[in-house]
Structures are given as C-alpha cells and as structure tokens.
Sequence to fold (641 residues):
Amino acid sequence: MKTVKMTTAQALVRFLDNQYISFDKIESKFIEGIFTIFGHGNVVGLGQALDENPGNLKVHQGRNEQGMALAAMGFGKQNNRKKIYAATSSVGPGAANMVTAAACSTANNIPLLLLPGDVFSSRQPDPVLQQIEQPHNLSISTNDAFKPVCKYWDRVARPEQLMSAMINAMRVLTDMGNTGAVCISLPQDVQGEVHDFPKSFFEKRVHKMVRQLPSVEELEEAIDLIKCKKKPLIICGGGVKYSEAGKKLLAFANKYNIPFAETQAGKSAIKSSEELNLGGVGVTGNLAANMIAKECDLVIGVGTRFTDFTTGSKSLFKNKEIEFLTINTSRFDASKLDATSLVGDAKVTLEYLEDKLEYYETEYKDEIKIAKKLWEDELDRLNKIEYKEGFIPEVTARVETSIDDFIKMHDSVLTQTRALGIINEALKKDSIIVGAAGSLPGDLQRVWKAEEKDSYHMEYGYSCMGYEIAASLGAKLASPDKEVYAMVGDGSYLMLHSELITAIQEKQKINVLLFDNCGFGCINNLQMGNGIGSLCTEFRHRNEETNKLDGDFVKIDFAKVASGYGVKTYTVKTIEELKIALEDAKKQSISTLIDIKVLPKTMTDGYDAWWHVGIAGVSEKDRVKEAYEAKKESLKLARQY
Fold:
C-alpha cells in the first residue's frame, strides 16, 4: 500500500480539497474553502497546513467565530446544500463561539463542517491556555458542548483516526435526509503529529446525492388517501428547494387544482405570483393561506418539518376530517403529526404521484380566488399605511407614549410595512434578501413577493439573531453576480454584525437594510400582548426617578458607526429618502447600510393563527390572567401530538 508522510492537519486539508458530489449526474466540488480565526489551538497545526498547501481551497479570515460559521452556513443554504465552507477556530472560547452556529445549522438541516482546535491529547501541558478542567472527567473539553447540537461529532485523538472521522463526516454532510452540523475536534498536538497516510485516502471522492423513491407500499397508501380527499392543501417546505423540485410541485398543483402555501424555508421555490400560491402559512402566515388551511381536509407537507409556526402550534388545521401526508427525505420529519409518510425525494415522489393520480379532481370552486383577493386587499392597505393625526399602529399592545417618544427622538414617521412595500418594488427581482429574527421574518413571509427562484433566504428554524449579515456574506459568495440584502432589525444588528468587516475585506458587496425601531420589537409585542409590562425589550435609558429602564429611547446613529468601517451609508426617515437611498446603493461597488428609522408597532400583526407560549398560570395582573385563560381555551382546540 502506497503511503505519504503528512501531519494530521496537512492530511485533512488535502482530503477536504478532493471531495465532490454528484446530483442528477452533475458533478461538482463540494468544499469551496474554509473560514478561520487563528489562535494557539489551530494556527501552528491547521494554519501551517493551509499556509503551505491549501490546494484549491479558499481561505477567509473571519472576525467572530459565530459570525464566520454562520457565513459558512449561509453559503451552504444559498447553494441548496450542494456546496459548503468549513470553519475552524482555536481552542476554548473560539470553539464555544461556534456552538450557536452548529445548533442553527442542525435545526435547519444545513450542512456545516466545524473544525475547532482542542486541548492536548497527550495532556502533558494541562491545563493549557483556555482549557476548562472538570475534576470528575479530564477527557471533557469545551468541544464536548458541540455534541447536543451536531448531527455527527468526533475527536481525532490519534492521527490515524482522521480517516474514519472524515469519511463519516462526509457521510452526514451529504446525507439529504439527515444533514446538519458536523464537528471534528482537533487536539492541537495531534494536528502537528505525523502519520503515513494511505494515498487512497486523498483520491477524488464523489458522494452521490441520490433521489430515492418511497416504497411501493407507501406510495399506494398515499394515492388512496389523496383520492378520497376533496380539499387538499400542499405545504411547500425547504426540502422543495433542496430537491430543486419547485417546477414539479407547481406542475402537480396546477394539474389537480391543489393550492399550496409556503414555509419560511420554502418561500421562493415557486413564484409568489402563481395563481395557486397562497403565500406564507401559520403564525407568520397571511390571511389567504390561513383561511384555506382551516378548511382543508388533507395537508400534503412537502419537505417541511412542521414547526409550531407552520402549524399554529398544531391548532391551525381545524377540519374534523383533517389528515396529513408527508413527503420528506427524513423519516423523522415524515412521521410527524401522525402522518401517512412518503420517505423520499420531493421531485421524483411528486412525479410518481402525478402519473398515478389521473382523473383525480379537487372540489375547490371560488374559495382560492376569494381568499387571495381578501389578502391582496389587505396587502394593499399595509403598503399604504401612513402616520397621521389619531394614528393607531398595527400592534396595539404598547407603552402609551412609545410612538410619540420615537418621533421626538428620531423625527421619523416612517411605517415598517410601507417601507417594505417600497423596498420590494425597488429591488431587482433576482436580488437575494436574507433574514432570520425579529419582526421582519413575519412581515417578509406575509408581504414580500418573491418572483425569482431562491431569492428569499430566511433562517427560521433557529431564528438566530445575528445570522442576517453573516449569512448575507455567505449568500454573496454563493451568488456573486446578484445583489444581496440583509434584512435586519436594530436588535439583531447589535447582536452580531462582525462579518460586515469580512465582506469589506473580501470586496464582496452586501447591502444592510437596518430597521431601527429602538428595541426588540417582536418580543415587546409578545410580552405586552400577554399582559406583561414593557421590561427590557425597548432600548430606553434608566429613569432616575423610577430606577427602571423606562426613560427616553437610546439614540443610535447606525449609519455613522458603519461609515467608520468603510461602508457607504444612508439615514432614512421618509419614503422619498428611502427611494433615493435604494437607487444610490445599487450604484455602489462597496457594501452599503441604510439606517431606516421605522415607527415601533408598525409591523404586521397576526392573521388568526395561535402560538403556544408559556404564559404564567398565576399573576396579580388581570391581563396576564386573561391571557392564560385564552391560552387554555386555544390549547383545547389544538392537536396534542
């Protein structure tokens, strides 16, 4: 057997550079490169290997470990899981910073390879710098924290273990039904240790991502179920994108006149303007989709995890005859809601069903058109909301002075829904918008019209604050010829925007649309909507008289701060200023930030979908008591599993 003498880290780099996938018989390189922040735990091992011979791997310098790992995740998501970046950190705090990104990736079923440095395998210098020690188990390190949030975890304690570890890592990263974060923990001494690796380990490997059909028995059961139902509804989930099955789902829906609604992950798999596309469904869904959902007798979930936001905490589908049919590559997700399960690829499964369901007809008449017309009228109203005397915001649960306080502070009366309408109209149709947290995901799922494939990039499986800007960099690296816009609130921006610097460094233009409403707006809505006072969800100064955070709003000039990074910035307080800024930003070659001062409470509110949250069962406040009683009544109408 031919061998080559290499360090563990050098062998890892060469292996990564030779991984490919095959999807629909099209072969492509799987690992584009690696994000890194070097420290003593990886710089002289993996850092040396990348310096000496990175092969064709691109190496990017991150600014925050969580941020760079989220950028890598955003790249993988925008590439529909067909191409990834890895991310490496030092030992200890650097590694711990990536745990959130690992959880985010796993929750969304997006492949992410993490390579954190680790403490010495030999234990000779223990405790090494940044090592935690557990007296009851000296084998534990910070990297054990990755175990609960990864789909595969391994520690390379000896050089020869690298081979089985990486082959298993690739197994999970390319698994269409069970992918997510993979953590390969690299003790810093082992990174530099030498081994005679077999040359075969470095040969080009092509991992086949195969479209699998469900069993004949499953398919026959599904066909019988569909044929006995009169008003089915399709839920288009993220799996439709990853399967690249949008056209097939649309053809299936059109052939049998079956309306479909979208999850956050599934939006932009199919054009918003399609006649049968009802738009977003559930807690952050719109009026049309939720109306049809309540009356349908069969829900066909295609590539969806059926999260609480999609199902209204299992209360949305109210027809007593309701049944569920799922198409999913994951048997775990396919079995949810006691569904009849089709475990397989969305595209080929829909093709099979379309062929076998001939002569099937639904009984929809004008219901779809009526529901869509009601929503279009409501959307038109939202797009035209303006502040005027006697103004009542969309969300009424608020501090009584919040609107006046904001106007006094920022001299802006711009409403969030109107601003979004202007932005949607102004951006090029193939622009990519990226979001994750706050009130914007709800607004965007409802009001945003996506007319180009994969132009809507929303991380809502983990709703990770700070994902937006980091993932926008990842999306830009995946689609360098398109404009990318981070749709971010002031809360998320303050949480994490470090990779804006990396975008500048790499000369990768991203556009930050920052909606500043002086607080964690959506959580303030949830808080006050359930009878609780405004506590630490608005950005207010401490009041010397009350000793509480109920003073004036904290005024932040986000444009001024970002301009110091070298970003082209704009401050927007009117519709005209917004239009001018959007057009000028298109002309720039560098990253831009538009600081949009939007009135609090002017985001969209719910459309008759319940969300189950843990409201206090005992309180001195009547409104909390009322909220708790309302929750009990809603829970009676929800499925228990």
Notes: The longest strand covers residues 112-118. The mean pLDDT is 97. The CA atoms of residues 288 and 373 lie 8 Å apart.
